[in-house]
Amino acid sequence: MIQLAISSWTVHGALGQVWYQPDDNGNMVNHNDDQPASLILLDLPAHIAKDGIHVLELCNFHLPSLDDNYLAQLKSAIDSAEVTLANLLIDTGNLSALDDTEWRNHIEMTKRWQDVAVKLGAKGTRIDCGTEQPTSETIQRSATALRELADYGASIGLDTTTENWQTTSIEPKNLFDIIKQADRPLKLCVDFGNAEKTADKYATLEQLMPHADSIHCKGHFGGMTLDTQEFSRSLDFIKQYNFSGHISLIDDDTDNEWERVLILKQQVEKQLL
Question: Where do the structural domains in the chain lie, given as residue ranges?
Answer without folding.
Answer: 3-272
